[in-house]
Every structure is written in structure tokens, then in C-alpha cells.
Amino acid sequence: xxxxxxxxxxxxxxxxxxxxxxxQEASLYQLVIVTLPFLLxxxxxxxxxxxxxxxxxxxxxxxxxxxxPVFYISGAIRPLQAMPYWVRMVTYSLPSTSAIKAIEGINxxxxxxxxxxLDILIMLMLGTIYALLGxxxxxxxxxxxx
Length: 146
Fold this sequence. Notes:
Structural class: mainly alpha
Distance between the termini: 34 Å
């Protein structure tokens, strides 16, 4: 599953902007290095949401209604500093916020990987926390923790 998303990430972050003529400062390997922790964080978040909701219908309904707000509050369109404080607190719990900052930093602002290292660590940390919470919920539901 992960190689498919890495391939699609290369298309969306490298090939597509090149076709449209957008300025790109990052090389493909730098984009993959930033994209991999993002994909791992999203997998961790997916584990948490799956274990928390349990019902396939609830997962689809939740994702259908949350996709657009998550896109908007992650900083893709509006800067985080322009958002209310409570919204910023929610955005920092989403892997997409750090991913947008990191990819934007290396791809448009010509930052190095060490400059976006904190964002990469935050993505890995969020993915780990969400995956562990999902595993914990699964263990509680299955009766392994009593």
C-alpha cells in the first residue's frame, strides 16, 4: 500500500507541478523523504479512526464530512497565524499541517531537509501516537487489557 502512495505522491508533488509550470526547488528524493513520514502519520491516524469508529459506514460518513474542513484548517489555503487560537490547536494535531509546512518549505521556499526536520519529527510522533491509541482501543475492546 505504501509504495502506491509514494508513487502517487511523486506524481502530485513533482510531475504535476512541473507540467503546470510551478516553481520547484526540491528534488524528487527530498519530496519522498518528506512524504514518507506523512504517509506513515496518516496510516497511524487511519488506525485510530478505524478502531475508534469500528463501523465501515461511520468511517465513510466521518471522512466524507471531515475531508474539506481538514484541508482548509491545515494551512493549505489560509495561514495558520490568521486562524483563531482554538482552531490552531486542532490543526497541530493533524499530520497534514506539518506535511504542508514541510513540503511547502522544501519545494517552494528552498529550505533544506534539516530546516524542516522538526515538521518531519512531528509527523512521525503524531503517527506513532495515533497508531498506539488505535492499538490500545483495539486491546480494550478485545479484552486483552483488564
